[in-house]
């Protein structure tokens, strides 16, 4: 069998790893003890936070990186992020740094079944001094559990160390390894099981090492191996080592006292080990003192190897060496749950042996067993040999009545108990709320709790010799009113992207000690239970673009309920597709209908609701327009693109997709047209993507005036590079930028190509023009290094003007997209959007267009519109500017138009806080204006 029954229970995780009850001991928020850092695996932990009890660290390493002398790191239960911990910060002799596991005795759980917090990794103490590590459970496989390297004044106390992996694994790893550059290291009151190397290994050169009061079991080599060191090795229980349980060589100097050697064999690796139990090499024998050690049942195994000679009995060893005058053999199995009351290890140790602590491996005090003779020596003659001190078998009863109620709560306790030694008993009652404990309690003790919370009321029985036992009762004192609750909801943001169709709820956890259940109704017909200790939860919605009422209902331990509500509106985030490619090239007949399928448009992935397209059309023998709209819906009275006969025109638009992800394209011309379609990006409610942040429109390039650092027209076939991120309100890490690029003063027909600088094969044609024509076009350009490249693909020079309207952020916290069925919301020819007034937009006049709260757009939270703006048959050339109502008109253009040409352009204007967009006619003559709505951006 591998290890003891205690180890098997531990390794199989049947022990209860306990963290403090949430919110205990009081319900109010608590920042913890001054000078204490907290590590706790709760939903609201943060490795970049303050490490307080309210906002603890998630990992021990985060605390180790900031701890200062005099501070204690409380590891409350298993950390959220385990793994290797490297300690490089030191304390001082008067202000050591302490890392300690913290557990709370769960009510009704036997103490023997409580294990320390599981760290799930190894600890390295590198070049440090004055550091204490205690009460942690460490698993290790291919590395040592604890490495002490070049460290001084280190205490390792109360550790549970378990080697995991098959017994026949080849890696020889130690439980605790102390290198030769370390000194003043203490390993005490720890349990180290089944090491594939040594339980404790001390390398040559180390000095002043103390290994005391540990249970060391099942190591493949030695339980304690020290070479070339000075050490005190006292009071350990050494069991089942394959090699010597304790070995000293390399000229070591040591005191070896009060150890109990119990082992007879181990697992499948060494069923019957032949190595001596206690081995001292010839180079160390003269410097080692051995006495008061004890050996388990004699099985023919050599008990001592001393200076090269072997001895099978204490008598033979003492006669030959003069050592071990008080050693014992045939003492029986010396664990407290199996030690006979008459065992000679009881009350027979040397209390003055160096390093012996005042408590045993379990933290139990040194007590006198009245049933055993006191044959020990030193300041007290009642110390037991080995790691365990025999205790009185005590029982204790009596708990607080009642154990729960609304505060103030009056309770009574009547303690009573019994002991196997028949000694007088005394009782102490600690009500666990900070009030003074009642000592020498007799009869019935009463108390009134005034502080709400979960309190651990303890009755401790103590016999006349100092043995103790404790019984703990959970007392819950409720608040006068049900605990208040709250929730905050937002889309799920992670690693700079947002899943806009997933609601992420942040829950109040300050009073969760008082709760028994939490249920959330998600507003879509589903609900779920959420653990009362959870600080957050989430839910995916299948149907976006509607508001869902969320209701959190919580029930406390007294059956009282409280609710909190919120509203969530699933939306879309944006994912650019780079490099862009022509997804469709072909001819659409006169008044024909083209089905752009989901596979063609790349909209067949999860949750896609809209697609960003760039459409190029070359007119035939007649002019006309194109309309794009969702498959499965009626064709709307809108135009995404207008063109003249034999004219090549390009425009961008975002189109909502049909149920299958398809988009219809209708040719509104009396002649066939040539069409090219590029998918620039997709909008999905079920995929992480980018959010959008509109900015006040700003001009970043104008080659006519030198804005942007380039003066003069761009020559034929030449390119210019424009920096758009890190300036004008666009952050340096923006994922994409929304640009409107105008070409003017063209000396020849041509086209403009826009490329993402640093992204190969990302060029896309955004504009076509004829000689002398001014053209503008909106485009979304992915960014790699904050720059875009504009290339003049014509045989003549052209002036370039570039305006910025917003960016796709790299944080996921910007606005989200709500696509809509294409809808005409402004037509000055028939009074749509003007309150019925039929009139062209006059020269240098402004029109105020309501955008929010109509046509399916939310009445609040709208930050930008997604429109196709069209100037109809202008009498002269000019431009339109759209911007947020209530703000200053920017010096930018949203649409440039020429004489007689009906000209569309996609625009994404900011929306005013009143829900309106202003449109200004910068031309010298009145013009009819259309605006078709394709969607909106809304704040999270």
Protein architecture, described:
The protein has 940 residues and is an all-beta fold. The chain contains four helices and 69 strands. The longest helix has 8 residues, at 314-321. It is elongated.
What's the layout of helices and strands?
Elements: H1 5-11, E1 16-17, E2 36-40, H2 60-64, E3 72-76, E4 85-87, E5 97-102, E6 114-115, E7 123-126, E8 129-134, E9 137-140, E10 146-149, E11 152-157, E12 160-163, E13 176-178, E14 183-188, E15 191-193, E16 200-202, E17 207-212, E18 215-217, E19 224-227, E20 230-234, E21 237-239, E22 246-249, E23 253-257, E24 260-261, E25 278-280, E26 288-291, E27 294-295, E28 304-306, E29 309-311, H3 314-321, E30 394-397, E31 404-406, E32 409-413, E33 416-419, E34 425-430, E35 445-449, E36 453-463, E37 468-478, E38 487-494, E39 497-507, E40 515-521, E41 527-529, E42 536-540, E43 548-556, E44 561-568, E45 573-576, E46 582-588, E47 593-596, H4 598-601, E48 608-618, E49 624-630, E50 641-643, E51 648-656, E52 663-667, E53 673-684, E54 692-702, E55 719-723, E56 736-744, E57 750-756, E58 764-769, E59 775-782, E60 787-794, E61 799-808, E62 816-827, E63 846-850, E64 862-872, E65 878-884, E66 895-897, E67 903-907, E68 916-921, E69 928-938
Parallel strand pairs: 1-6, 2-3, 3-5, 4-7, 5-8, 7-10, 8-11, 9-12, 10-13, 11-14, 12-15, 13-16, 14-17, 15-18, 16-19, 17-20, 18-21, 19-22, 20-23, 21-24, 22-25, 23-26, 24-27, 25-28, 31-37
Antiparallel strand pairs: 28-29, 30-33, 32-35, 34-36, 36-37, 38-39, 39-42, 40-41, 40-43, 43-44, 45-53, 46-53, 47-52, 48-51, 48-53, 49-50, 49-52, 54-61, 55-60, 56-59, 56-61, 57-58, 57-60, 62-69, 63-68, 64-67, 64-69, 65-66, 65-68
């Amino acid at each position: 069998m591998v290890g003891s029954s205690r180890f098997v229970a531990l390794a199989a995780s049947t022990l209860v790893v306990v963290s403090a009850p949430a919110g205990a001991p009081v319900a109010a928020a608590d920042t913890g003890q001054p000078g204490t850092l907290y590590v706790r695996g709760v939903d609201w932990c943060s490795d970049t936070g303050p490490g307080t009890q309210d906002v603890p660290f998630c990992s021990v390493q985060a605390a180790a990186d900031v701890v200062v002398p005099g501070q204690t790191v409380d590891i409350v239960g298993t950390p959220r992020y385990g793994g290797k911990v490297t300690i490089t910060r030191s304390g001082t002799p008067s202000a050591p740094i302490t890392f300690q596991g913290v557990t709370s005795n769960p009510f009704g759980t036997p103490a023997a079944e409580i294990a320390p917090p599981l760290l799930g990794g190894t600890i390295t103490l590198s070049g440090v001094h004055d550091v204490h590590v205690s009460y942690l459970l460490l698993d290790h496989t291919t590395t040592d559990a604890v490495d002490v390297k070049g460290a001084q004044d280190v205490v390792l106390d109360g550790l549970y160390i378990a080697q995991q992996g098959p017994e026949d694994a080849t890696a020889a790893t130690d439980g605790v390894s102390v290198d030769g550059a370390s000194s003043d290291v203490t390993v005490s009151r720890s349990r180290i099981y089944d090491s594939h190397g040594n339980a404790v290994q001390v390398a040559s050169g180390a000095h002043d090492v103390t290994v005391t009061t540990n249970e060391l079991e099942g190591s493949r080599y030695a339980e304690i191996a020290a070479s070339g060191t000075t050490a005190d090795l006292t009071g350990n229980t050494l069991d089942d080592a394959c090699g010597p349980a304790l070995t000293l060589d390399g000229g070591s100097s040591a005191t070896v006292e009060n150890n109990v050697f119990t082992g007879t064999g181990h697992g499948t690796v060494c069923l019957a080990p032949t190595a001596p139990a206690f081995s001292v090499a010839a180079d160390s024998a003269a410097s080692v003192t051995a006495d008061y050690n004890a050996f388990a049942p004699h099985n023919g195994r050599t008990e001592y190897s001393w200076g090269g000679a072997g001895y099978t009995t204490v008598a033979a060893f003492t006669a030959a060496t003069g050592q071990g005058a008080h050693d014992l053999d045939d003492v029986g199995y010396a664990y407290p749950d199996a030690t006979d009351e008459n065992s000679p290890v009881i009350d027979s140790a040397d209390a003055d042996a160096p390093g012996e602590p005042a408590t045993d491996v379990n933290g139990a005090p040194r007590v006198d067993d009245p049933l055993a003779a006191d044959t020990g020596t030193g300041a007290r003659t009642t110390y037991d040999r080995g790691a365990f001190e025999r205790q009185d078998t005590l029982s204790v009863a009596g708990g607080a009545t009642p154990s729960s109620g609304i505060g103030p709560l009056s309770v009574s306790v009547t303690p009573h108990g019994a002991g196997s030694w028949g000694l007088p008993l005394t009782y102490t009652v600690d009500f666990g709320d900070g009030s003074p404990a009642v000592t020498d309690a007799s009869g019935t003790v009463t108390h009134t709790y005034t502080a709400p919370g979960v309190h651990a009321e303890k009755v401790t029985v103590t016999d006349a010799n100092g043995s103790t036992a404790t019984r703990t009762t959970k007392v819950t004192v409720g608040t006068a009113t049900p605990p208040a609750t709250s929730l905050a909801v937002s889309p799920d943001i992670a690693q700079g992207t947002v899943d806009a169709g997933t609601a992420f709820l942040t829950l109040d956890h300050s009073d969760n000690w008082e709760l028994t259940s939490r249920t959330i109704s998600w507003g879509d017909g589903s609900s779920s239970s959420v653990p009362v200790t959870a600080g957050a939860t989430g839910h995916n919605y299948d149907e976006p673009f509607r508001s869902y009422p969320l209701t959190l209902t919580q029930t406390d331990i007294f059956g009282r309920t409280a609710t909190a509500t919120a509203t969530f509106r699933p939306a879309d985030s944006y994912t650019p597709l780079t490099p862009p490619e022509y997804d469709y090239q072909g001819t659409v007949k006169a008044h024909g209908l083209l089905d752009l399928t989901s596979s063609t448009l790349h909209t067949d992935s999860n949750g896609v609701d809209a697609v960003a397209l760039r459409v190029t059309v070359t007119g035939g023998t007649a002019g006309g327009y194109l309309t794009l709209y969702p498959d499965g819906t009626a064709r709307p009275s809108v135009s995404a693109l207008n063109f003249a006969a034999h004219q090549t025109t390009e425009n961008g638009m975002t189109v909502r997709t049909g149920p299958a992800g398809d988009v219809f394209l209708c040719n509104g011309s009396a002649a066939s047209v040539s069409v090219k379609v590029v998918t620039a990006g997709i909008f999905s409610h079920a995929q992480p993507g980018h959010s959008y942040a509109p900015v006040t429109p700003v001009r970043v390039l104008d080659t006519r005036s030198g804005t942007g650092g380039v003066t003069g027209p761009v020559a034929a076939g030449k390119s210019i590079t424009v920096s758009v991120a890190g300036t004008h309100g666009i952050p340096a890490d923006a994922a994409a930028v929304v640009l409107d690029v105008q070409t003017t003063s063209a000396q020849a027909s041509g086209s403009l190509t826009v490329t993402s600088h640093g992204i190969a094969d990302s060029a896309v044609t955004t504009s076509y023009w004829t000689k002398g024509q001014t053209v503008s076009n909106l485009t979304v350009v992915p960014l790699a290094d904050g720059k875009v490249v504009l290339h003049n693909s014509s045989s003549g020079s052209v002036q370039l003007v570039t305006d910025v309207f917003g960016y796709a952020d790299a944080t996921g916290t910007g606005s989200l997209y709500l696509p809509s069925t294409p809808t005409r919301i402004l037509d000055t020819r028939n009074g749509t959007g003007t309150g019925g007034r039929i009139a062209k937009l006059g020269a240098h006049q402004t029109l105020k267009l309501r955008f929010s709260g109509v046509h399916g757009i939310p009445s609040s939270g709208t930050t930008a519109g997604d429109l196709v703006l069209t100037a109809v048959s202008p009498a002269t050339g000019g431009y339109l500017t759209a911007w947020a109502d209530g703000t200053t008109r920017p010096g930018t253009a949203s649409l440039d138009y020429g004489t007689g040409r009906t000209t569309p352009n996609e625009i994404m204007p900011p929306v005013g806080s009143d829900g309106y967009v202003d449109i200004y006619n910068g031309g010298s003559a009145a013009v009819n204006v259309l605006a078709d709505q394709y969607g909106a951006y809304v704040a999270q």
